[in-house]
Each structure stands twice: as structure tokens, then as C-alpha cells.
User: Fold this.
Amino acid sequence: MLRYIVCVKQVPDTTEVKIDPKTNTLIREGVPSILNPFDQFALEEAIKLRKEEDEIVVISMGPPQAKKALMKCLALGADRAILLSDRAFAGADTFATAITLAEAIKKIGKFDVIFAGLQAIDGDTAQVGPEIAAQLGIPQITYVEEVLKIEGKRLEAKAVTDDGYNIIEAKLPVLVAEITPSSFDPSNPSMRGIIMAKKKPFETWTAADFDVGKENFGLEGSLTQVIKVYAPPIKEKGVIYTDEPKIAVDKLFNKLSDEGVI
Amino acid sequence: MINVNDKCTGCGLCLKACPFAAITLVDKKAIIGDACTLCGACVQVCKFDAIDLERRQVKDVDLSQFQDVWVVAEVKDGKIRSVTYELLGKAKDLAFELKQKVGLVLIGSDVKKFTKDLSIHGADKIYIAEDENLLQYYSDTYANIIIGLISKYNPNIVLYPATIKGRDLAPRVASILRLGLTADCTGLSLYENKLLQTRPAFGGNIMADIVDFETRPQMATVRPNVMKNLCEDHDENAEIIEVPVKIDEKGLRVRVKEVLSAVCEDGIPLCEADIVVAGGRGLGSKDGFKLIQELADIFHGTVGASRVPIELGWIAKSHQVGQSGTTVSPKIYIACGISGTIQHLVGMKSSKVIIAINTDPNAPIFNVANYGIVGDLYEVIPLLIEALKNKEDLLCV
Assistant:
């Protein structure tokens, strides 16, 4: 029996998040939350690879409402879900997030493969996966587009490189950080899946459930500090030519040459 | 501080994993020698908890002992990737303000030949770790070498390219050394002598300024094509520090079995392309991509597309730029017949130069374009191709 742990995050649907220009804070109200697509892909990979006797545990750090994302994971086929939720976890940077998830994974006990999305669509950092692997002292494979097989304590994956793919082999335990291939079409849970999910084990762990102190979590455990958030500067209007094509191309070509673009 | 305790069985796993060849076996016990840099590779592979490593606590220490601005070079196909020069240019500006030096970390096989070139581009000191088994990038080996170097030389700032390798490597180093790390920076400056790291989040809708107050070195990955001030006139005699490494292939926990570089039928993948020429609904038909390809070929660029051509089956989904496709930040992005939906703009608006060609003067793409032509792409592109073909040196190629 192998145990797969899938790390997921509930994220706001990014394109709809805006900054309030007066207060320079995020306007989150009314923004729908979704299961991070990269994480859903990682989960679906784990489900694809699991054998009958294997177990898929899905974990997430987030506010109480992140339960919804975990319930979706259970409905899609995960066996057990753990939500890490405590005010002490709030304001975590990628390091404090990785510490929290790594401590939770240690607490779960034996594991064979950790699946994570390469990055979350709100932060886009791609740091948490490798940071968890490093905390657990296990190797990592990032930019994985497909886990090809898991056999006899070995995993084989296809990972994106600068000019194609590498077929990579690793001994278990290992962490894979997955990138969605362009053909990925996220599944919707079935009715049966949604009903089954309600019967599956769901736990919520708070800071008190951990072996390490509160100072390791959230804002206090963070090593980086955001000192300011703001709307990106509005780009200066470009040079747009409306002349007839021949003249417009001439003007554009000369402009690009003069400004050293081409 | 590093110590081997009584649990050591002399299994020898740590010998194979140590990139600095610092461990020997004496009487069935691992002995850690002077070459140890505290990288911790041995601790990660030990199955018996037999190695105790206590790292220096960086918090509450005198930050002035951390000096110099480092850049981690990226080598690809026997060449230094241009992002390395971009980072060196930035590092030089920062180092000048801080009155510190620029260090460059060069890891690979047969890389000594690059030192003069890297020196001219701004490096004052070059740390070289060379071994034939370093030709292939592995997170473990590269991270362990960098961890060793940081532990030994105490840099103030370390910059990595935000490329596939850099984004794999930097967080591993940061986590093991318990250092702050900021991803995909598009701006770096100084704030009270600390590194002010600026990065986009939420698909570019928001910018954040980030500072590491307590940990050193301060570390960031930096997007290619955003740092523009290259240095090309630096002294060519950087100080060379050779780092003795020896990589035992048997110690690798992850191994590349096969390299499939021909899988990408169109050459450079979108996310790594310097020049992207993309087509949208305005092409009108599948055949339009022949013209797009022709323009891309002049730049040795890659063809992209907005969502509509993908949905209409004009081109494969791997070409899609945007929220449900690939995010790109090339040197030049040419949008042809693309109106510029928000989902598309999210995927390309951090490009260095955006050129738009569209019949509709009110198309949102013109709001983000640096240059544009309002006109029929079937008239404009052939003229542009002709003009480009007649230009002797294309700077951007």
C-alpha cells in the first residue's frame, strides 16, 4: 500500500481581483473561490495512478471556507482530507506555508509520493513545493506534466524542460510539482462522488495539534514581509499608426530600428 | 556544526551524496573532513539519523558580516543564458550602491571558458564548481553546492534567474537554509540598504514590494527580459575561486533517463521564447498561421495564439497564450488579429515590447501595446516581412 499526499490551495479566481486605489488593499469581496487548477491536476494524476489499496490524503492550509475545496477533492476521489486552519497560520509567506504543510505531513506519518501543483494562480511563486521537499529532506521533481508510472518504490515522470521534456526516474519518497498540460480539462465531481465525499474522513488541525510552536507559523514564521501592495503603474499609451499599410509599416519599421527594438 | 553520532552504520550513502568529497569511512563510521561546507547533502540521504547538523541562526546577528551581491549563472547548450547578463547588470548597480562586490556562481561541466566573458559583464569574483556530472542539472546537486557556498562565503544578496531551473533551485536552497525568497521579481532596488523586491501577483493585477528584514542572504528569482541595463565594459580579470567538487552519479536520488528535446515540434517552447508572434480570430482561417509562422521564422521566434483559433481547431493547444494557456514574457510579442481579452492580456502583458496589428482601433490590445498598426494583417504582415528581410542585422535575433 502506498500513501499519496496531495497539497492543494483554494484561490480566488485571479483575473477578478483588483486593488482599491484609495486604500491599496485587495478587494476580495464577491470574488469567487476555486480549487487551484494546478492542484486539481496533481490530484487527478494521483487518482489516475492509485491502485485499489493505496490511499490519497489531501491537505490544505487556509481559512475555514477552504473546506469547500477539500470536499471537492474528496468528491473527485481522494480518501481523506485534512484542513490546516488557525488564525496563527494567517499571513504566511511561502516558507512559513511550507513549514506548516511539512509539519502536517510528518504528523500524517509514512508517505510515498507528495503531489503538488507547480504554483497557485494567485501567488504564482512555485516555491512551496520545493520548500516542502527540502523540509522533509526528500528529492523533488518540478514542472511535471505527467507521472508515467509508480512501480516498486520508483516513480517515473515526464517533466517540461527548456526545449522539450525529460523522462525522470526517482526513488520514493519524492515530491512532484505538476504543471497542467495545455490539454488539461478539469473534471467535475459526479453526483455519486459528492454524496460519497460526505462520508469520508475530514479533519481540521489547528496550531495546537502540531509538535512545533506557533512562532513557526503564519506572519511570525515568515521570513519575507510584504511592505506594500499597489496597482501596477498604468502603461504609457503606445505609438499606434493608422496610416495606410505601406506608410504605417515604414513608420513602424523606422521607429523600431531607431529605438533599438529590432 | 556537524557531527556523526553513534547511529552511523558505515553504509556509505553520505559519501556518494557529498558534492564536496568531504566524507571518508574509517572503521565503519563516516568521518567528515575539512572540505565540508555544511551543505547538508549527507543529512538528507542518511537513513539512520546519524548526522547532526546545526546551522547558524541568522536571526539577531550582525547583518554587516554578509557582503556582496551574487548571481547564479545559467548555462544552456554550452552557452551562458542571456538572463545571466541581465542579472549581472542589476547586481552591479546594487553592489555599487552598497559598496560591495559582484559574485557569480558558475556550476557545470567545462564552464571555465566563460570566466572572461562573465567578468566583462560585471562579475568581480567567480565561484566555479566544475565536474562532468554537473552537465545535467539536478536540484539536489546544484542546491547542495550553492548551500555550501553561501554557508562559507556569506553573501548579502543572491539572485537567480526565474527560469525552469532557477525556480526549481532557489526554493530548495532557501528552505534548507531557512532564508526568505521572493519569486519572479520584475524590479529590484534598495530600501534602507535592504533589497526591495517587486513582484506581480494575482495574474499581474497587483504589485507587491517585499523585504527580508532578518535573514541573509536576501534571495530572489528574477524574470528574464526585465532587467535592461547590461554591463559590458567591466574589468576582465575577475577573481576566480575554484570550488572543489566531485559528483558521484551513484549518489543521485533522481536521474534523467531520457531527454526528449525533439518533442516540441516548433523549436523553442512558448514560455522560453525571446520572440513570440501570435495570431487570433482576425486571421480568419487556419491558413493565416502560415503567415504568422513566416513572420516568426524571421526572428527565429515561436508561434502563439489566442483562445479562439485553438477552439476553432486552427492550431494546437500548446500554442495558446493566456490564462488557460501559457504565460509568456518575451523580448518582443507581436499580436496579430488579437483583440486582447483580459484572459489573453494576463498571459502576455509583461512582455518587454508589445506590437499589435488589428483592424479595430478600439481593440483592448492597443492599450497594452508599445507599438501598433491599425490595419489588415494580411496587408501589413507581408510588408513587414519584406522590410525585415531587407534589414541586415536584426538586433533582437
